[in-house]
């Protein structure tokens, strides 16, 4: 970490603390996620790092490197100074349909690329969708802590954030992670347009049991006072389908009439065009990264919590 100087804390969670740092030589800002060495360096941390570093797309937070301190594993990533999409929608109440489509198109572009690389995210939500600081904000998908490569097996563990989770994930049997990601994208779109979660009971929004019941029965509606086009309602109806085999796929979303309206030129090129663009140019090999992760499994060499203040829990969970 000698190369970086800490600017400020920018977030906490059950993983540890995230801090904004500045490269002393280039003056570029980065976000660094600190995870305490020892027991917290579990298999999901290795999976998060290896999956994230394999992704190179303008709508995904860029992975830079992993470093080891005496007390923590440090994951260095691109800093998205625009903050969470959640904060933006919370401040606005809800978006116009055109604005929601603008962000949804980018979200789908990033997810489509992940799926082309055989990685399902499994925790897509507004809080894991960041924005850069430009006047025309670019979506940046982050937090691959629940991600899984589906090259060798389908996921079966129920993970994610309750409000965004697909019905089949709750069954705790094997499911198609790519199709469950589609459901989460649909929840994100609904929240942007309506300003509330589709499957929360309006009378008891914090009642977890009722939320699960409404997800399993696909019980949602759009309030009468919110104007939503027929095309958008149609797309949501194709996403919120209980049977994952009958749910719309990402490629089908990309050809849906509502989605393709005002589609930016750079998103028309398809996922294949990003294979050689926006490369991370990793300074570390897979072997070096895996070695650092293995070393981080050894207990801290100094007193714990050296990286920051007491930690807070995350809304994502294993169900």
TrEMBL record:
Organism domain of life: Eukaryota
Family statement: Belongs to the protein kinase superfamily.
Protein's name in the database: non-specific serine/threonine protein kinase
Start and end residues of each stretch annotated as Disordered: 277-319
Top enzyme class: transferase
Alphabetized InterPro entries for the sequence: Kinase-like_dom_sf, Prot_kinase_dom, Protein_kinase_ATP_BS, Ser/Thr_kinase_AS
One Pfam family this sequence matches: Pkinase
Keywords of this entry: ATP-binding, Kinase, Nucleotide-binding, Serine/threonine-protein kinase, Transferase
EC number: 2.7.11.1
């Amino acid at each position: 970490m000698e190369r970086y100087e800490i600017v400020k804390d920018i977030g906490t969670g059950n993983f540890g603390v995230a801090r904004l740092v500045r490269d002393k030589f280039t003056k570029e800002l980065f976000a660094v996620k600190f995870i305490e060495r020892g027991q917290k360096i579990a298999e999901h941390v290795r999976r998060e790092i290896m999956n994230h570093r394999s992704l190179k797309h303008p709508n995904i937070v860029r992975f830079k490197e992993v470093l080891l301190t005496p007390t923590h594993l440090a994951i260095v990533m691109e800093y998205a100074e625009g903050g969470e999409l959640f904060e933006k929608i919370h401040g606005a109440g809800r978006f116009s349909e055109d604005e929601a489509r603008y962000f949804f198109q980018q979200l789908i572009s990033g997810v489509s690329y992940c799926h082309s690389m055989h990685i399902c995210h499994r925790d897509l939500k507004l809080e894991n969708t960041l924005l850069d600081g430009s006047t025309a904000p670019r979506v940046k998908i982050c937090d691959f802590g629940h991600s899984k490569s589906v090259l060798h097996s389908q996921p079966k563990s129920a993970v994610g954030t309750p409000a965004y989770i697909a019905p089949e994930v709750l069954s705790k049997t094997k499911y198609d992670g790519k199709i469950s990601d589609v459901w989460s994208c649909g929840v994100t779109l609904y929240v942007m347009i309506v300003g509330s979660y589709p499957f929360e009971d309006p009378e008891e929004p914090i009642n977890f049991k009722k939320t699960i019941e409404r997800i399993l029965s696909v019980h949602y509606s759009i309030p009468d006072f919110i104007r939503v086009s027929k095309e958008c309602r149609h797309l949501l109806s194709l996403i919120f389908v209980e049977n994952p085999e009958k749910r719309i796929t990402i490629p089908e979303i990309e050809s849906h009439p509502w989605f393709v309206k005002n589609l930016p030129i750079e998103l028309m090129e398809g996922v294949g065009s990003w294979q050689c663009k926006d490369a991370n140019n990793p300074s570390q090999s897979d072997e070096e990264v895996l070695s650092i992760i293995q070393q981080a499994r050894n207990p801290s060499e100094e007193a714990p919590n050296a990286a920051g203040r007491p930690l807070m829990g995350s809304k994502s969970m294993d169900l």
